[in-house]
C-alpha cells in the first residue's frame, strides 16, 4: 500500500521539488499552500504523514499539527523551517506528533529518509 503524504508548503518551487521527490520514491502526495487547506485534507483524506513548513507567510503551522494530533494521535509530523524560532528543540514539546525538524535548505535525501522512517517504509523494505 502506498503511503500518503500531506505537504504544506507555500513556496511553489519548493513544493514542486518536494512533491516530485516523494512521488519518485513511491509516495502519494497531496500538496497544499495554506493551513486551512491542510486542515481540510486532514479531515477528508487517509494520510500517513504530514510534512509542514513551520511558517506559511507570517502564520505558524503548529495549529495544523495540533489538529492532526487530536484527529489522528498516531500521525507523525515532520517540520521544515528556515526560521530561528524554536531553535532549542521546543517544537517537540509544543505538539506531540512532531517527530523531526529539518532546517532549510533541506537535503532531499534527508527528508525522504525521515519520512521513510516515520512511515515505517524503511522497516518494510528491509523485511520485504
Automatic annotation (TrEMBL):
<keyword id="KW-0597">Phosphoprotein</keyword>
<dbReference type="Pfam" id="PF00072">
    <property type="entry name" value="Response_reg"/>
</dbReference>
<feature type="modified residue" description="4-aspartylphosphate">
    <location>
        <position position="53"/>
    </location>
</feature>
<dbReference type="InterPro" id="IPR001789">
    <property type="entry name" value="Sig_transdc_resp-reg_receiver"/>
</dbReference>
<dbReference type="InterPro" id="IPR011006">
    <property type="entry name" value="CheY-like_superfamily"/>
</dbReference>
<protein>
    <submittedName>
        <fullName>Response regulator</fullName>
    </submittedName>
</protein>
<feature type="domain" description="Response regulatory">
    <location>
        <begin position="4"/>
        <end position="119"/>
    </location>
</feature>
